From TrEMBL:
It comes from Paenirhodobacter hankyongi. The keyword Transcription does not apply. GO terms for biological process: cellular respiration; nitrate assimilation. Belongs to the prokaryotic molybdopterin-containing oxidoreductase family. NasA/NapA/NarB subfamily. It comes from the Bacteria. The chain holds residues 7 to 707 of 887 of the full protein. Transmembrane segments: none annotated. This is Nitrate reductase. One of its GO terms (molecular function) is metal ion binding. Its cofactor is Mo-bis(molybdopterin guanine dinucleotide); [4Fe-4S] cluster. GO terms for cellular component: membrane; oxidoreductase complex. Signal peptide: none annotated. Keywords: 4Fe-4S, Iron, Iron-sulfur, Metal-binding, Molybdenum, Nitrate assimilation, Oxidoreductase. Residues 8-64 form the 4Fe-4S Mo/W bis-MGD-type domain.
Length: 701
């Protein structure tokens, strides 16, 4: 393949996997082969990479790549495909209104792609039916932040994990899911032996290797722990009374905390006391949380239960202190900033606030803006199945595998009037159902920006040409916008121009009081964009070292942080005689999402190379299971086959199954077929860790 890569130079880009957002040097080794190294100058990783990052060069093969558009399975040219997409969307909108169409996008999209998709759907089509697979990942954190802080703003920085004297990982297997951040934590703990780490997780995960205390919380019991902590903070007189002048809702939150039953945490009184002793006795504490908190029918409340404790003690937005939500995908945070969820506008503006809507509409010179939030992911596919949505465009995600009740999602797509899929490959369960399949440029072939979990915006840069006629997503979306009748609004000639427009919009947001203001970059030209170095926003922050809320100033109308009363609720499904096992789903260390990229790297497949079901030895004995037997997990939604992995890392009555395998990679292994599409009422995030199943021996190993 021809490339921009000269033998002696490397291109600085960003890893396309997780929200740590590591900087990557993409160059050539001595033999002239494409090679990858960690970027020593990137502030997220300082040269480190994890197993997935170091294997990136092995995933660049083109065998399965989509090289030309396809309509009903037949290769065609771009003009034919794009004309068809524009015509069918326009026709549906004319006949059924703008809410009869939808975009379902992805945290894999670059910010510029997201920006164009949002502008097209919200400003010009006039619907808010654009949602993202980040809904499955961190929507509860977004909702919790907005309730407590007034905006979806992450208060702290990665350095806080290194500066803390106590790091609590709750619902976060940082070792496998954010490995380089975990490496930084391991190094910090080695350098400062007095540092303590607590892991709160029903499973004994790899992150427990450095834990001073592992608390095997009952599924859904997290809010009960943090309520118990809040009550104890108050009982011991450990609140920060000066900081509480900047916070409302303390009395109500405390009353709810006192009323909740600590036993619902599943922990013993001694375990709870040990946790409270550590947390209250350590001023510099960071509480890291992720999918174990978010993926719950009460995820938003769990987030606020954590935030309550930090607000009550003023441990927020100061070095080594704060709650810290780590995002799953490479650009989940950029998607949040650019308004990529059905209930948001760009730059932390609020879709349902008339002044914000009017300002964005004026900036875009847009004909129509929706006045209410659109359909969130689960609602969107339900509406598709019920025929309320007639046309959907799915971009870089595989909902037939990753959505809860995945079989119903597949049926909805099979029955839909018009399905467009943009992807780098045709080999996904979702791409196979597309009427129109659009070939997109992949990582290392496209230009743009991403934002990681600590608000660091970094460039992704192209080093290789895209195969065939594959194109960047922003360009495909803009082409459709032009063909739908808005040539001026979608008339950019480069990705740098898209970024510059986004930066200019952030100035409008800044004038409305938004904290997300990068408008000093509005005049950026192509060369400056090409050279843009990673930066954490707020840019050039002198106050609070780039952290938020430590000064007691929040983004709520009264400027105060909000504590919320939280009444713990367990998962919606309850184990019973017919379905006695609680099903926990999650990631493995070396695979990513539905494996479209990582499965190409042989060494990544060597670690846990097939679907498995972690089950406790007592349960295995009762079911007559031997090591390596195949088990069948089932509930009324379907059945899945996996290899039994007998381990006391899970508790009796609970099983863990990874979420990566697909019908393409292992038949009968899409675990999300068994996950109920129950959602958090505030965030709309599905409860991916709380369904129930029965298990039986399927075959000998
Ligand atoms: Fe990529 Fe995340 Fe690994 Fe960094 S930690 S190399 S961003 S997968």
């Amino acid at each position: 393949r021809r490339s921009r890569l000269a033998p002696s130079e490397a291109i600085r880009t960003t890893c396309p996997y997780c929200g740590v957002g590591c900087g990557v040097l993409l160059g050539r080794d001595g033999a002239g082969r494409i090679a990858v190294k960690g970027d020593p100058d990137h502030p997220a990783n300082f040269g480190r990479l994890c197993s997935k990052g170091t294997a990136l060069a092995e995933t660049l093969g083109l065998d399965d790549r989509l090289r030309a558009p396809r309509v009903l399975g037949h290769e065609t040219g771009w003009d034919t495909a794009l004309d068809l997409v524009a015509a069918r969307f326009s026709e549906v909108i004319r006949e059924h209104g703008p809410d009869a169409v939808a975009f379902y996008v992805s945290g894999q999209l670059l910010t510029e792609d997201y920006y164009v998709a949002n502008k097209l759907m919200k400003g010009f089509i006039g619907s808010a039916n654009i949602d993202t697979n980040s809904r499955l990942c961190m929507a509860s954190s977004v909702a919790g932040h907005r309730r407590a802080f007034g905006t979806d703003t992450v208060p702290g920085l990665y350095a806080d994990l290194e500066e803390a004297d106590l790091v609590v990982l709750t619902g976060s297997n940082l070792a496998w899911c954010h490995p380089v951040l975990y490496q930084r934590l391991v190094a910090a703990k080695a350098a400062r032996p007095a540092m303590r780490v607590v892991v709160i997780d029903p499973r004994r995960t790899a992150s427990c290797d450095i834990a001073d205390l592992h608390l095997a919380v009952a599924p859904g019991g997290d809010a009960a722990i943090f309520n118990a902590l809040l009550a104890e903070i108050d009982r011991r007189g450990a609140t920060d009374t000066a900081f509480l002048r900047h916070v409302t809702g303390f009395a109500e939150a405390l009353a709810a905390a006192r009323a909740s039953d600590p036993a619902e945490s599943g922990l013993s009184p001694a375990e709870l006391e040990a946790f409270c002793d550590l947390w209250i006795g350590t001023p510099k504490v960071v509480t890291v949380y992720s999918q174990g908190i978010n993926q719950s029918s009460s995820g938003t409340d769990k987030v606020n239960a954590i935030l309550n404790c930090h607000l009550a003690t003023g441990r927020i937005g100061r070095p080594g202190m704060g709650p810290f939500s780590v995002t799953g995908q490479p650009n989940a945070m950029g998607g949040r900033e650019v308004g990529g969820l059905a209930n948001m506008l760009a730059c932390h503006l609020d879709l349902e606030a008339p002044a914000h809507r009017t300002a964005v509409q004026a900036f875009w010179d847009a004909p129509a803006m929706p006045e209410r939030a659109g359909l969130k992911a689960v609602e969107m596919f339900r509406a598709l199945g019920e025929g309320r949505i007639k046309a959907i465009w799915i971009i870089h995600t595989n909902p037939v595998v990753s959505m809860p009740e995945a079989d119903a999602v597949r049926a909805a797509l099979e029955g839909a009037d018009f399905v467009v899929v943009s992807d780098i490959t045709e080999c996904t369960d979702t791409a196979r159902l597309a009427h129109v399949l659009l070939p997109a440029a992949a990582w290392a072939e496209k230009e743009g920006t991403v934002t990681n979990s600590e608000r660091c915006i970094s460039r992704q840069r192209a080093a290789l040409p895209a195969p065939g006629s594959a194109r960047p997503d922003w360009e495909i979306l803009a082409e459709v916008g032009r063909r739908m009748g808005w040539p001026a609004a979608f008339g950019w000639s480069s990705v740098a121009e898209v970024f510059a427009e986004y930066a200019a919009l952030s100035g409008v947001a800044g004038a409305l009081g938004s904290d997300f203001d990068i408008s000093d970059l509005a005049g950026i030209d192509a060369a400056e964009y090409d050279a843009l170095a990673p930066f954490v926003w707020p840019r050039n922050a002198r106050k609070n070292g780039g952290r938020f809320f430590g000064d007691g100033r929040f983004h709520t109308p009264d400027g105060k942080g909000r504590m919320l009363p939280v009444t713990p609720r367990g998962p919606e499904s309850r184990p019973g005689a017919a379905f006695p096992f609680r099903l926990n789903t999650g990631r493995t260390r070396d695979q990513w999402h539905t494996m479209t990229r990582t499965a190409k790297a042989p060494r990544l497949n060597q670690h846990l190379g097939e679907p498995y079901c972690e089950i406790h030895p007592e349960d295995a004995a009762r079911l007559g299971l031997g090591a390596g037997d195949l088990v069948r997990l089932h509930n009324p939604l379907g059945a899945v086959i996996a290899r039994a992995a007998i381990s006391d890392a899970v508790r009796p009555g609970e099983v863990f199954v990874p979420m990566h395998w697909t019908a393409e990679t292992a038949s009968a292994a899409r675990i999300d077929t068994l996950v109920r599409a129950v959602t958090d009422p505030i965030s709309g995030q599905p409860e991916s860790k709380g369904s129930v199943v029965a298990i039986e021996r399927f075959a000998a190993g």
